[in-house]
């Protein structure tokens, strides 16, 4: 799942980067870092880091506004100092140059990435539980019972006689009583995983949200360009007027970009996640009774005598 999430993130990142390279070339090189940071933050969010989708998206638009303002709205600016850049970043929060598109992107991504984040954390918890219970501590009574079951027949020269199934189950259930107590919680955990995997593939469509970032960013930049004169007037009042070359080329830089869909790649990514989801749910359903049936699993196979008329019951051959 995590590999698929990462694959989808890289796919969406490449699509978003290509937007600047094809439509907004004057700022493409400088926009590369904010784009990279955005998708790194989204990846960390899915993995459970103490961050939010909103902070990641708004930080991206904070970094994007100085570039849009100085490369597209006022391409004649020659002096873009650190102080002026920081002023533009802070002004973005007040004048909202990207209109509703920044908040819409936050809403769409928050819904779709939440289920992925929860699933990622749930899977990590499952691994932790499995690792913790992999080596069960045996009590003194359990050790005695295991020795009695496995080796007492040898004292009578019965080296080929194996324990009876019922006897084995009694011993193993006693030894694993503390582990089997996890049964109810484990069943609840499996149900939660089923719910989360369905959420990932249901209405909160991760693939659609991630691949839609490119179009949302494009619409946001176009909105800022179309409102360039008003934005410039407000910025001049707040941040002052920077040095400019003669002429203003802003009207020539507005380029409408149609949403590009790489149908085949998108379909493969979508099918990959759906297939993994189905396989995973089926696999986890089979392990629903894992902790309740450990004794049965251990007493199956070579450890006990199943299809025979003789076995060791702890006291004698029966």
Automatic annotation (TrEMBL):
It is a lipid-anchor; GPI-anchor. InterPro entries: Glypican, Glypican_CS. The keyword Glycoprotein applies. This is Glypican-5. One of its GO terms (cellular component) is plasma membrane. Keywords: Cell membrane, Glycoprotein, GPI-anchor, Heparan sulfate, Lipoprotein, Membrane, Proteoglycan, Signal. It comes from the Eukaryota. GO terms for biological process: cell migration; positive regulation of canonical Wnt signaling pathway; regulation of protein localization to membrane. Its main location: membrane. Cell surface proteoglycan. Coiled coil: none annotated. It holds the Pfam family Glypican. It is found in: Cell membrane. Belongs to the glypican family.
């Amino acid at each position: 799942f995590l590999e698929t999430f990462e694959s989808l993130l890289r796919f969406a990142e490449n699509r978003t980067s290509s937007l600047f390279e094809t439509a907004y070339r004057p700022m493409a090189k400088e926009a590369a870092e904010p784009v990279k940071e955005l998708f790194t933050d989204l990846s960390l969010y899915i993995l459970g880091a103490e961050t939010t989708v909103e902070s990641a998206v708004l930080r991206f638009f904070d970094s994007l506004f100085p570039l849009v303002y100085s490369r597209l709205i006022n391409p004649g600016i020659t002096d873009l100092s650190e102080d002026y850049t920081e002023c533009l970043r802070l002004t973005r929060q007040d004048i909202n140059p990207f209109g509703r598109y920044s908040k819409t992107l936050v809403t769409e991504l928050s819904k779709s990435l939440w289920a992925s984040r929860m699933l990622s954390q749930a899977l990590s918890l499952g691994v932790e539980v499995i690792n913790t219970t992999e080596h069960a501590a045996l009590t003194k009574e359990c050790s005695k019972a295991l020795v009695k079951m496995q080796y007492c027949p040898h004292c009578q020269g019965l080296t080929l006689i194996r324990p009876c199934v019922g006897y084995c189950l009694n011993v193993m259930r006693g030894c694993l009583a503390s582990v089997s107590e996890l049964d109810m919680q484990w069943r609840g955990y499996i149900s939660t995983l089923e719910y989360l995997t369905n959420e990932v593939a249901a209405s909160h469509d991760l693939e659609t949200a991630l691949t839609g970032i490119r179009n949302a960013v494009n619409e946001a930049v176009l909105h800022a360009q179309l409102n360039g004169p008003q934005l410039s007037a407000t910025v001049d009042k707040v941040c002052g007027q920077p040095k400019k070359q003669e002429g203003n080329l802003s009207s020539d830089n507005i380029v409408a970009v149609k949403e590009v869909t790489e149908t085949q790649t998108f379909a493969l990514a979508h099918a990959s996640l759906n297939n993994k989801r189905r396989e995973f749910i089926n696999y986890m359903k089979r392990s629903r009774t894992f902790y309740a049936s450990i004794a049965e699993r251990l007493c199956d196979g070579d450890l006990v005598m199943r299809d025979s008329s003789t076995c060791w019951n702890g006291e004698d051959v029966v």
